[in-house]
Write a structure and sequence with these properties.
Helix content is 79%, strand content 0%. It is built from 8 helices and no strands.
């Protein structure tokens, strides 16, 4: 009986999470470009780039970046939550390009959705491990994944706008 109740609870929570995700994506799809850019949270890009490059482009000193330093560079839990929220907005901005360049917009938006999924997973795991006190040994790996995913999403979006809409590109760079 307890197993059935737990299964029902997990199924209900998963259903609620999917519904919330669907509703949030629809809200963002109805926003104008200016509204989307206005929703972006300001993030310290230098810290994100430092952590991401430590993961994406390993160097001789790749182990010198300590977990506490990564945590601070990314802005702690608040910074990670803002990265996750910005990730959803970056995907909506990529989807916006589909209006004038459908083929490239669709492909880049899908790549960004996959990066966004990895970003959401990493941030969720960090939150779980932080609040529940699970294996905190894994947090540095999740920090690398979150920073790398966000960095790739940002770079993909900037390249997409640079080649497809030079008029909006400067404003996007300023907002990011």
């Amino acid at each position: 009986m307890a197993t059935v109740v737990m299964l029902a609870l997990v199924t209900t929570l998963l259903g609620c999470a999917l519904l919330h995700s669907y509703i949030s994506a629809n809200r963002l799809a109805r926003c104008s470009w200016e509204e989307l850019v206005g929703k972006l949270h300001p993030l310290e890009s230098a810290g994100i780039v430092t952590v991401a490059m430590n993961h994406l482009v390993p160097a001789k000193d790749q182990l010198e970046l300590q977990p506490e330093e990564m945590w601070n560079l990314l802005g702690g839990l608040e910074g990670l939550q803002q990265m996750r929220e910005n990730g959803r907005i970056l995907i909506a901005l990529a989807s916006y390009v589909e209006r004038w360049n459908y083929e490239e917009g669709v492909i880049i938006a899908e790549r960004m959705r996959r990066d966004g999924l990895q970003l959401r997973r990493a941030v969720t795991r960090i939150m779980l491990e932080t609040f529940i006190g699970m294996k905190q040994v894994h947090i540095p790996f999740h920090l690398h994944e979150a920073a790398s995913s966000y960095y790739l999403m940002r770079q993909r979006l900037l390249a997409l706008y640079q080649t497809n809409h030079a008029g909006l590109y400067p404003r996007l760079v300023e907002a990011l």
